[in-house]
Amino acid sequence: MIRIATIGTSVITEHFIDAVRQAGPDGSIAVTAVTSRTADRARAFADKTGVATASDDLPGLIAAGEVDAVYVGSPNGAHAAQAREAIAAGAHVFVEKPATPTSAEWEQLVTEARAAGVVVFEGQRNVYDPGFAAVRELLPRLGVLRRAAFAYCQRSARYDLVLAGETPNIFDPALGGGALMDLGVYPLSAMIALFGEPTDIAAFAARIATGVDGTGTALLAYPGMVGEVTFSKITRSDVPSEIEGELGSLEIDHIAQPRRLRLTLLDGTVEERTVEAAENNMRYEVSRFAELIGGADAASDQSRTGGVLRTLERIREGMRLI
């Protein structure tokens, strides 16, 4: 059994625990401990999620041989240091997106993990979703690809706190907050997974009172093709994402969780496909993490993460966030 300890007590960590239970109903993988900065907070979260062990000493759990892997679900700015600590202690690491603030820090984590004989893996749920596999399957029917426009715009309830003069974690620049790093990584990771890293980038953002980007757009140049990534935590859009080729187009209902696809070809063909998959699509990235721990090659997963982080840096530079 792969025994996992979690870092973080947010909703995303709750979703992860649920995903592990779905991915390992036979007990092959399980969250056996939750950790937090204080024992009381860890105990409260363990009781809430039904996990047996609560601790404020993650290195101690690893050293005692009580866990094999660590899930890092803390604020973005803490990811790198906590992942490094877990790797040094000898644990496999599943770190939430974005894994690190910079691509250089990610490459260092990969190097350290290889030296320690463990796996470091970035959670990016949409690219492991069955709906994403369906998108890949339909792409050749579009002919020569010319344009892709992916978006994730969802107004955060915590934006009301910003309007009231507060700085919640997700909008705190010191913690790696902002729309790009929280939501923009979904359309961007899909773009990189399908088309690779762009040759050129132009990016623009609207900043909010805390100093982070509330919404933004990045234009990505590829040989013979243009990509557009749009993201927002202060507005909402239900417009689908789309890929356009010389023979037709493919609409994707939600780039973070593709469930309804619509293929429209110039010859008049119209096909609609509904993807049957788990509501909590983190279960698919959890399954991939288990495969990697079991010996599957992590190189392509880690390389894609590096490509996303390099592109994020270029976008942030274009938006004058760094």
Description of the structure:
This protein has 2 domains: 2-123, NAD(P)-binding Rossmann-like Domain (Rossmann fold), CATH 3.40.50; 127-277, 2-Layer Sandwich (Dihydrodipicolinate Reductase, domain 2). It has 10 helices and 14 strands. The model has no long low-confidence stretch (mean pLDDT 97). Helix 2 links the parallel strand 2 (29-35) and strand 3 (53-55). The radius of gyration is 20 Å and the shape is globular. By secondary structure, the protein is an alpha/beta fold. It starts with a strand and ends with a helix. It has an 8-stranded mixed beta sheet with strand order 8-9-10-7-11-12-13-14, covered by helices on one side. Strands 3-2-1-4-5-6 form a 6-stranded parallel beta sheet, with helices on both faces. It has helices spanning 11-23, 39-49, 58-63, 79-88, 103-116, 130-138, 159-163, 179-195, 282-293, 299-318; strands at 2-7, 29-35, 53-55, 69-72, 92-96, 120-123, 145-153, 200-207, 213-222, 225-232, 241-245, 248-252, 260-265, 270-274.
Please state how the strands of the largest beta sheet are arranged side by side.
8-9-10-7-11-12-13-14
As for the CATH topology of the largest domain, it is Dihydrodipicolinate Reductase, domain 2
Contiguous uncertain segments of 5+ residues: none
The N- and C-terminal alpha carbons lie at a distance of 42 Å
Shape: globular
Mean pLDDT: 97
C-alpha Rg (nearest Å): 20 Å
CATH 4th-level superfamily of the largest domain: Dihydrodipicolinate Reductase, domain 2
SSE order, one letter for each helix or strand: EHEHEHEHEHEHEHHEEEEEEEHH
Largest sheet: 8 strands, mixed
| Helix vs. strand class | alpha/beta
Instruction: Note the beta-strand portion.
Output: 25-35%
Keywords: NAD
Pfam family, one: GFO_IDH_MocA
GO molecular function: nucleotide binding
Domain Gfo/Idh/MocA-like oxidoreductase N-terminal: 2-123
